[in-house]
Specification:
The protein folds into two domains: 7-76, RNA polymerase sigma factor, region 2, helix turn helix motif (Rna Polymerase Sigma Factor, Chain: A), CATH 1.10.1740; 100-163, Orthogonal Bundle (Arc Repressor Mutant, subunit A), CATH 1.10.10.10. 61% of the residues lie in helices and 0% in strands. The protein is built from seven helices and no strands. Helix 1 crosses helix 3 (55-76) and helix 1 runs antiparallel to helix 5 (113-124). The longest helix is centred in the middle third of the chain and has 22 residues, at 55-76. The relative contact order is 0.11.
């Protein structure tokens, strides 16, 4: 016996974490595809994974690479728009206000890639900064700085910033 869990149990245990990471890095439109691609790749490689490996970090690494693939593919595609920029209008006063999740998604999308990834991998996947650095490249200190800068930018730009519970406060303490 290899001592490894069945792959179905791995999907059940870590599927929601990988989806949260994909949504934070890519946005909701591409997250489901990246999630599926992550687990297809993981299923192929799972038999060769050592029994003592950190499965969650391994899956987040695969999701990170799939997110890069999706981002690169999107950069190569033409973008269709309903209105050209010269005819686009500002929202009318009676338009619905986006919900909090949409506002947070928009605020995350405005962050630089390193900050967005550091926030997703540390705060959503729960990985320590050393593992975030291994996935994104650089040092643990650089990953910590990217996450701190990203959280600070979110606090400035996202109207629901007080809802960023668990993120470090001004002096490194977690927000209650």
């Amino acid at each position: 016996m290899t001592g490894k869990q069945p792959f179905e149990a791995i999907v059940s245990a870590h599927g929601s974490t990988v989806l949260r990471v994909c949504r934070a890095v890519l946005g909701p439109a591409d997250a489901d595809d990246a999630w599926s691609e992550t687990f297809l790749s993981a299923m192929k490689a799972y038999p060769d994974l050592p029994a003592d490996a950190n499965v969650e970090a391994w899956l987040v690494t695969i999701a990170h690479r799939k997110a890069i693939d999706v981002t690169r593919a999107a950069a190569r595609r033409a973008i269709s728009v309903a209105e050209t920029p010269d005819t686009a209008s500002s929202p009318a006063a009676g338009d619905a206000v986006p919900d909090a999740a949409a506002e947070l998604t928009q605020a995350l999308a405005k962050l630089p890639a390193k900050q967005k990834q550091a926030i997703a991998y540390h705060y959503l996947a729960g990985l320590p900064y050393a593992e975030v650095a291994a996935i994104c490249g650089g040092s643990a200190d650089a990953a910590r700085r990217a996450a701190a800068d990203g959280i600070a930018a979110l606090r400035r730009s996202y109207p629901g910033a007080p809802a960023l519970k668990g993120a470090p406060g001004e002096h490194g303490q977690a927000i209650p």
